[in-house]
Structure formats: structure tokens, C-alpha cells
Amino acid sequence: MSPRWEPNPDTCRGRSVVHTLHAHLVFVPKYRRNVFTDEILTRCEEIMREVCTKANAELREFNGEADHVHLLIHYPPQVRLSALVGTLKGVSAHYLRKEYAAHIKRHLWGDHFWSPSYFAASCGGAPLTVVKEYIENQKRPG
Description:
This protein is an alpha+beta fold. It has a single domain, classed as 2-Layer Sandwich (Alpha-Beta Plaits). The protein is 37% helix and 23% strand. The protein is built from four helices and six strands; from the N terminus they run E-E-E-H-E-E-H-H-E-H. The chain has helices at 38-54, 81-99, 101-107, 128-136, and strands at 12-13, 18-19, 21-27, 58-65, 68-75, 119-123. The strands form two sheets. Strands 4-5-3-6 form a four-stranded antiparallel beta sheet, with helices on one face. A two-stranded antiparallel sheet has the order 1-2. The longest helix is centred in the middle third of the chain and has 19 residues, at 81-99. The chain is elongated, with a radius of gyration of 19 Å. It starts with 11 loop residues before the first strand and ends in a 6-residue tail after the last helix. Residues 18-138 form the Transposase IS200-like domain.
């Protein structure tokens, strides 16, 4: 017997897809420099919320420390995560460098704000072991 499906408020419906996609992202500034103050983190969050909204995604959580930021993004399958990351990093770098130029120049040099790498993990839903067991227990046609 299949487990009873409980409605999930994060589940979205499109014309031909039902989805709930979340990603945990971590970005670090170039050379992992301690560039973030509380004020800069707050502004970075505002910028990234706007970028997500324009991309039809939602920034669910944001936090950070002096040398990195964490984001929890809820996004539709039409959004390429790598493209969203590029836009998040590019737009935020532009505005943060412009608005906090003196502070950032003391910590970073050259034209780069973010490290070119990032961490991304899919998250949400059931643990992989539960999904694996559910699939293994499905009946095969006769």
C-alpha cells in the first residue's frame, strides 16, 4: 500500500509539471575576504530578492558571515540554476561595488567581487533513502 500523499504548500503546478525545487547556495567573495558587514549583508539580501523575483524564483532564506553568504532558493523547472547563480552574483557584485566602493576596495582588488565557484545542493522533500525505498517498492506491471 502506498503512503498517503499529503499536500505540500511548496508544491507548484504548471501546465505540464508539478514541482517543488529548492537549492541551498553558498557564495564566497574573491579570495574569501572578510568583505561583509551587517549593512552590506542586508543590502545583498535585498538585491538577491529582487533578482529572484525577476527570475520567477523566490529567495526563502538568506544569511551570511563576513566571508560568505547562504541562500535558500525555491525555483521552477524552467529556471536554469546555473543561469540564476550567474545573475545573482553579477547583479549583486555590480550594486555592492557601486554602493560600498570605499569599503570593498579595502578588501578586494581588480574587477571581481565573487569567487567564480559556488556551492549548490538540492534540498527539501523526503530524504534520499525514503525516496529510494518508495521507488523500490512500486509494483511493476504484470
